[in-house]
């Protein structure tokens, strides 16, 4: 756990640091742990959900790297801690290039310090829904060649968006990347997780929000123009290339996950 910086009087909880706490990392403050305890009183499985998100990310990054993808763009990335994308990719492909993007300036500042000096890694401050701004950041322009396949990771972030914004955003990324690129998506569902439904019902302020809960039929249009890989929509932590799809209600994960390849001509 990090010492609270003396220049901050009464730091407030930060979503990225809370996620790090749930993962068992060290890049968070006491106030984040205290807020995480409050979350646990409503959503007792939040720690497991965070681990399941990271498990999905780790699995699909490994699969994509082994298939030859060496460029990764993580949206709403938070902190690159506890087996982050660049560390996973580096185990399976030589010299991967990874750009982390987040709209939280505080998270970006800390993430930049964590990733400082790591070859082929950049951290950028941008809103994932402003696709032009994301693609124009120095990190993307310097590290990512959009003429070659790139993996766009939207893991644990789209539940904050309304349907039309989420659909339009994913389509913009789909149209911006080369055929053979990939979109990796997770999304929470209320199936088998009544506490997630309860989480939506309580008042939310500050960094917290009431996440949308969706199922594959609600999100099918988001991935038009792509080909689903492996099991298609499945319980996120159980995603495996050669395994059949598993329902989150059966696994208790509360998370859908999908990997899709961009196949059609852009536009």
TrEMBL record:
One Gene Ontology molecular-function label: methyltransferase activity
Swiss-Prot/TrEMBL keywords: Methyltransferase, Transferase
InterPro entries: SAM-dependent_MTases_sf (IPR029063), SAM_dep_MeTrfase_SAV2177_type (IPR006764)
RNA-binding among keywords: no
Protein name: S-adenosyl methyltransferase
GO aspect biological process, one term: methylation
Domain of life of the organism encoding this protein: Bacteria
Pfam families listed in its UniProt record: Methyltransf_19
SUPFAM superfamilies: S-adenosyl-L-methionine-dependent methyltransferases
């Amino acid at each position: 756990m990090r010492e609270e910086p003396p220049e901050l009087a009464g730091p407030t909880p930060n979503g990225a640091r809370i996620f790090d706490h749930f993962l068992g990392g060290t890049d968070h403050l006491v106030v984040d742990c205290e807020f995480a305890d409050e979350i646990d009183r409503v959503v007792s499985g939040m720690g497991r959900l965070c681990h399941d998100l990271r498990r999905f990310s780790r699995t699909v990054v490994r699969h994509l790297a082994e298939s030859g993808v060496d460029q990764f763009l993580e949206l709403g990335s938070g902190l690159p801690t506890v087996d982050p994308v660049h560390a996973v990719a580096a185990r399976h492909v030589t010299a991967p290039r990874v750009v982390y993007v987040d709209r939280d300036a505080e998270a970006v500042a800390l993430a930049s310090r964590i990733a400082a000096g790591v070859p082929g890694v950049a951290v950028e401050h941008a809103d994932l829904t402003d696709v032009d701004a994301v693609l124009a950041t120095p990190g993307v322009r310097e590290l990512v060649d959009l003429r070659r396949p790139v993996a766009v990771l939207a893991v644990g972030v789209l539940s904050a968006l309304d349907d039309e914004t989420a659909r339009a955003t994913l389509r913009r990324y789909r149209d911006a990347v080369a055929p053979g690129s990939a979109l990796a998506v997770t999304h929470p569902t209320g199936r088998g997780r009544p506490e997630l439904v309860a989480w939506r019902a309580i008042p939310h302020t500050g960094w917290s929000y009431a996440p949308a809960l969706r199922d594959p039929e609600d999100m099918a249009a988001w991935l038009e123009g792509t080909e689903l890989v492996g099991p298609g929509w499945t319980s996120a932590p159980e995603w495996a290339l050669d395994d059949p799809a598993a329902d989150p209600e059966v696994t208790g994960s509360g998370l859908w996950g999908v990997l899709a390849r961009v196949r059609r001509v852009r536009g």
